[in-house]
């Protein structure tokens, strides 16, 4: 469904398929606007919410190799996270299980070798959330399930003509707007 502005249909190109780009597309869809996310990811969307499945000794592990967790400091974002919790996508990391481990220096003879001191995160800090089933990539895939995504795609340039044109894709997309939600994975955007 698209929102019509006069005779024009509002379509939005979102450059970057990390959480910001995915959330932008989800919100646009809720508002009745068509959006398409362009992402460079070879394996999946997610940007810094990326996970790999690794087998070690015949057992599979999910490794979050960029963001391992996130906080929900604002009330507005906590409401969003509560929906994700209800759907089983994210879970609160158990209090006291995350903190700082300081190894005992060699000059402390009473400390067993390789041992140190663990200090839990402060109870005053916002809770941490993880994606226990599929790693952080699971959250990105959850958000992407109901939106249009094109990947792996490098958007090197957007140019305004009668229609917006993604130059590296050689596509005329009849776009009205673009949003950039990309970190370092995007070339310069010109002519917008």
TrEMBL record:
Pfam families linked to this entry: NAD_binding_8 (PF13450)
Highest taxon, organism lineage: Eukaryota
InterPro entries to which the protein is assigned, alphabetical: FAD/NAD-bd_sf
Matches recorded under PANTHER family: FAD/NAD(P)-BINDING OXIDOREDUCTASE FAMILY PROTEIN, FAD_NAD(P)-BINDING OXIDOREDUCTASE FAMILY PROTEIN
Name listed for the protein in its UniProt record: Amine oxidase domain-containing protein
Source organism per UniProt: Volvox reticuliferus
Highest classification ranks of the organism: Eukaryota, Viridiplantae, Chlorophyta, core chlorophytes, Chlorophyceae
